[in-house]
Amino acid sequence: MNFQLNNIPQRTEKPRENGLTMVMDKGFSVRQAADFMEVGAAYTDFVKLGWTTALIVPKLEEKLAVYREAGAHPYFGGTLFEAFVVRDQFDDFLRVIEKYRLEYAEISDGSIALPHEEKCEYIAKLAQHVTVISEVGSKDNTKIMAPYKWISLMKAELEAGSWRLIAESRESGNVGLYRESGEVRQGLVDEILNEIPNEKIIWEAPLKSQQVYFIHLIGANVNLGNINPAEIIALETTRMGLRGDTFHYFI
Amino acid sequence: MNFQLNNIPQRTEKPRENGLTMVMDKGFSVRQAADFMEVGAAYTDFVKLGWTTALIVPKLEEKLAVYREAGAHPYFGGTLFEAFVVRDQFDDFLRVIEKYRLEYAEISDGSIALPHEEKCEYIAKLAQHVTVISEVGSKDNTKIMAPYKWISLMKAELEAGSWRLIAESRESGNVGLYRESGEVRQGLVDEILNEIPNEKIIWEAPLKSQQVYFIHLIGANVNLGNINPAEIIALETTRMGLRGDTFHYFI
Amino acid sequence: MNFQLNNIPQRTEKPRENGLTMVMDKGFSVRQAADFMEVGAAYTDFVKLGWTTALIVPKLEEKLAVYREAGAHPYFGGTLFEAFVVRDQFDDFLRVIEKYRLEYAEISDGSIALPHEEKCEYIAKLAQHVTVISEVGSKDNTKIMAPYKWISLMKAELEAGSWRLIAESRESGNVGLYRESGEVRQGLVDEILNEIPNEKIIWEAPLKSQQVYFIHLIGANVNLGNINPAEIIALETTRMGLRGDTFHYFI
Fold first, then answer.
1. Contact residues, C window 92-111, toward A, CB-based 8 Å cutoff
2. What pLDDT digit, counting tens, does each position of A6-37 carry?
3. Which family would the database say this protein is a member of (chains A, B, C) (predicted)?
């Protein structure tokens, strides 16, 4: 902190087990990544290279190096895993992970129909190589799952070897956990939290109202994902109760 | 591509006649332009300096040089043409084109009332100096044209010497081709495509839902315009069927 | 201007008393600040480091230096004042102002309940050290004030020593002066202008439709605030009647 302000909620520090922030890079240049790290390194635990952007973004190795040197773990979006699986190229996916020396990988089934047993097998296989983050929830707004279904999938994925679960929202924050309007499906969230330890979940919350909701519900050290890099300082002030929206949460 | 993924739709390569992407720069610094080109050069055919921003943006020559060296054609928005014409300064407009050694120019009548014959005369005159892109459609949401009108204007402008037609949407994607909600006027698009070769049209499509619509309708190599520079990698993955929205279009 | 276009409304020049633009920086890196100043220095009078971001943004001194060298006055958002006051740390706030050699400070009560007399005392006290900008209006959408109330608060704050008044909108442009939809509360604006000289007010207007509204109402040289840095060139063209939205205002 640049100066002293009393009674600020204690934030966890790196390497964090809780209070994680996962930010989405959807096509930064190397210098843009460096600018983001200049302000965000202390507050960013993971940088997800959104969906399949890692396939085509230039200077990928250099960008990964920028994030690593700043102490943020880069990994590739779950849609990349799906793109390999749907093409029967899972072994090539493993080679990509090896080529880029990734320590984390995301497994999802938001865009493909993957029998859940098979998804869990992929989780178990990948967990031998990297730390696995698995995503629950469809990117398709018409496929609404009942809470008990979310919970049983989550439990099975943890058992299969997932380190953390990501609750789907997309970049736009209007599917999965959220209604099309971006509003939180509160009943769903309550039921999940009744069965799964909140530390195990990274809530995708791209919109400010969604971040505020989860900070209010769980506290400054909730795990949040799909954060816009330009909002990393803003999010941190929101977590600390230093923005209009959360001003009275911690005092 | 950074690694091998099978069965990706074949994208055209530069210099493209089809599958064009026109991106809008609404006031980048020289370094921001360079960052954009680092990631987007291969995917960007044209950079439009939005509306009249070329008049006041500092270091204009340097920025144009950045785009040219990266192999993207810069040009000035059609509103600049209109600003000169409404002031009876068309000859000064020609001098601006010459001063900045532009190879492309956009002619539009989105903000002024210009008799269509006169617009076509301007197209013919300009076509002697540069490659002309002409824009059809008003920026005014209350001026909705019937499809037959769009088609007859488009045909006349091609005949007058336009190389490509731009279908208006504004930066915000809520006029011309689109309803105020941003939804595509599908009947209009169908009728246009029945009469005008799709290769001749650059569809302004600033919103993701609009890009997805045209990629679904016409394919990976549809011409798209008014793309946000920050979305250039995202758009390319969308074209290639590698994003949730288009995941099943090409497999 | 890069070339000659006739009949453009005369914009005031720095140091401006009128036609002020206040831009919001919500967490730029030093280089991002420099990029912003490369294009925006001539058009930007004030840079507000949004709400409490000054507390945690890295390299704060360097960033302030970038803005100062470019001739834009940096200052800290009013929420920072409130964060100190609510913790009974006003003296520490004075020390922060001194430490960073700030020449301007914003006083607000958007997030805390502060008796108005007390707010005016803070204005008077601060005015001995810096030029005070005070903000009127709540960040809470449910607290809608009648126009006479806005006016009486504004008059009292000017009397207490405020140099300019800011009319609240938040970063999102949907409270205070605006309905939840972002629409201007026109009756409110009219009544304020009937009693308070428009030169004394900086209208927070983050959305384009709001900027267009005030430019139409008051002219090219209206004072506008909470502008997105990426829109600084766009705003200037809008002020000059060189964008579709304002094309016919000054010709």
1. 92, 95-96, 99, 110-111
2. 999 999 999 999 999 999 999 999 999 999 99
3. Belongs to the phosphosulfolactate synthase family.
**Separation of first and last alpha carbons in chain C:** 18
Count how many domains chain C has: 1
For residue A105, being part of any structural domain is answered with yes
- Tell me how crowded residue A161 is: count the other CB atoms within 10 A of its CB: 18
User: Minimal CA–CA distance to C218: which of C185, C249, C172?
Assistant: C249
A184 is written with which tokens?
């939180």
Nearest by Cα to B172 from C25, C244, A28, A206: C244
CATH of the domain at A81: 3.20.20.70
Domain containing B209 equals 21-246
C242 inside 8 A of chain B by CB: yes
For A56, the token pair is 């085509």
β-strands C164-167, C131-136 pairing: parallel
Scored b (16 or more CB within 10 A) or e, B19-31 reads bbbbbbbbbbbbb
**CB C39 to CB B50 under 8 A?**
no
Residue C77 falls inside a structural domain: yes
Residue A136 DSSP symbol:
E
For C123, the token pair is 């204005």
How many degrees, rounded to 5, is the angle at CA B83 between CA C198 and CA B52?
Answer: 75
B144: number of Cβ within 10 Å: 14
Q: Using a CB-CB distance cutoff of 8 angstroms, which residues of chain C are in contact with residue B172?
A: 208
CB contact under 8 A, A58 and B42: yes
- Whether C5 maps to a domain, the answer reads no
Element (H or E) spanning A104, and its range?
Answer: strand A104-107
Measured between beta carbons, the chain C residues lying within 8 angstroms of A238 are none
Distance from CA of C143 to the nearest CA of B (A): 29
Eight-class DSSP state of A41:
G
> Exposure of B69 by Cβ count < 10 A (0-12 exposed, 13-18 middle, 19+ buried)?
exposed
Residue of B nearest to A94 (CA): B3
Where are the alpha helices (H) located in C161-231, listed in sequence order? Answer: 186-195, 208-218
- Give CA–CA dist C181/C236, Å, rounded: 24
Mean pLDDT of chain C: 95
Chains that touch A (3 or more CB pairs under 8 A): B, C
Is residue B2 in some structural domain? Answer: no
- Asked if the C-beta of A139 comes within 8 angstroms of chain B's C-beta atoms, the answer is yes
Q: Is A188 on the interface with C (CB under 8 A)?
A: no
pLDDT digits (tens, 9 = 90+) for B103-116: 999 999 999 999 99
pLDDT band at C176 (very low <50, low <70, confident <90, very high): confident
- For residue C238, list chain B residues with Cβ-Cβ distance below 8 A: none
| Chain centre to alpha carbon of residue C155 | 18
